[in-house]
User: Which sequence fits this backbone?
């Protein structure tokens, strides 16, 4: 009975954890604005959490820098399954204007499986909501596959 | 007993929500918002200026040789784009367009690719192409003109634009500053400042018009 309850409620309140992997702060601000009353992703159940162990969805911003790579991977490994990794902005997908720099270890997809890419530099808050809703669907699917 | 903010709390229960209600109510992007790229391959002439100015290396191309000409496929990777629109600014033919579509959410990398293909025909060789660079005659007149710039060119030969869309130089106005040669994305122009020559490699020229735009003396017609 509890398993069924968990299965049904996973997609209703996914908790977010935000990792800044050397971002310019543009995407970070937009992600926070998604949770503020104007766009209000919290009415869809998204809740920002302070600990990766509580999270369902991990949002990564920034071109994964060589300094942050170890921390990013360690943080992501602490997120329990089922988890969904969302890259926000162009940086974690390709490196963007920092591509080829000696200080960049990205893109993130070299190290972990990325579920959703939200393109834009920075993405519009509506696009971030789109990405999070898609991530929730993937999360539900992953939960359904678990025993 | 006094309840502070009781009125506001009761009002808040019945008032309309102040948030945007995005997924329920679709939202339009602001005017001139730079979202998903639309590429018009029919307007493109493959001058590669967009690839040169792209800061995120988001634009790539492949060229395939076919019988009708070169088959050019240009790809814009939105996952590497900064949406600065420098490529659209530099495109003299308006082949790149930024739309207000911001829904750029993908689970696969391919969903963020914008591609277009066109066939570029080889340059048509003419029997006697009109050589624009006047070799010896205007040379003597030019030297004084460079010094006295405000003097209008009296004997300026009225140059006609070519019908194949390639640049023509007005030798009477040219100061051989080499800006056009430096701006040319195809490297088709050779300008020798000392010898005062302006030569165009017609096979390399793609007719993008960058030289005409860059010319400070406006002596190049396209």
Assistant:
């Amino acid at each position: 009975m509890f398993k069924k309850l968990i299965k049904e409620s996973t997609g209703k309140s996914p908790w977010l954890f935000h990792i800044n992997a050397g971002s310019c702060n543009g995407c970070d601000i937009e992600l926070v604005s998604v949770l503020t009353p104007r766009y209000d992703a919290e009415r869809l159940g998204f809740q920002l959490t302070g600990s990766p162990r509580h999270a369902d969805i991990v949002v990564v911003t920034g071109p994964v820098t060589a300094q942050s790579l170890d921390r990013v991977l360690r943080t992501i490994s602490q997120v329990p399954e089922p988890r969904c990794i969302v890259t926000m902005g162009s940086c974690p997908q390709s490196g963007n204007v920092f591509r080829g720099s000696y200080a960049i270890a990205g893109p993130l997809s070299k190290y972990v499986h990325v579920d959703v890419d939200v393109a834009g530099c920075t993405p519009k808050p509506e696009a971030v909501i789109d990405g999070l809703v898609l991530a929730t669907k993937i999360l539900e699917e992953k939960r359904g596959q678990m025993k | 007993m006094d309840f502070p903010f009781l009125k506001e709390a009761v009002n808040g229960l019945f008032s309309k929500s102040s948030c945007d209600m995005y997924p329920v109510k679709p939202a339009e992007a602001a005017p001139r918002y730079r979202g998903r790229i639309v590429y018009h391959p029919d307007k493109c002439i493959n001058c590669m200026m967009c690839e040169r100015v792209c800061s995120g290396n988001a634009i790539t191309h492949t060229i395939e040789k076919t019988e009708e000409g070169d088959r050019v496929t240009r790809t814009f990777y939105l996952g590497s784009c900064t949406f600065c629109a420098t490529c659209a600014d530099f495109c003299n033919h308006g082949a790149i367009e930024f739309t207000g579509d911001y829904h750029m959410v993908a689970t696969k990398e391919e969903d963020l690719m914008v591609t277009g293909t066109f066939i570029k025909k080889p340059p048509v060789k003419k029997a006697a192409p009109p050589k624009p660079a006047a070799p010896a005659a205007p040379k003597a007149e030019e030297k004084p003109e460079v010094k006295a710039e405000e003097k209008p060119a009296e004997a300026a030969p009225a140059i006609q634009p070519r019908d194949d869309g390639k640049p023509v130089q007005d030798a009477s106005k040219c100061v051989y500053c080499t800006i056009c040669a430096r701006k040319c994305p195809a490297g088709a122009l050779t300008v020798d400042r000392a010898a005062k020559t302006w030569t165009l490699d017609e096979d390399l020229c793609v007719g993008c018009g960058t030289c005409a735009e860059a010319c400070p003396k406006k002596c190049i017609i396209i």
Notes: The two ends of chain B are 84 Å apart (CA to CA). The CA atoms of residues 124 and 164 of chain B lie 8 Å apart. The longest strand of chain B covers residues 70-77.
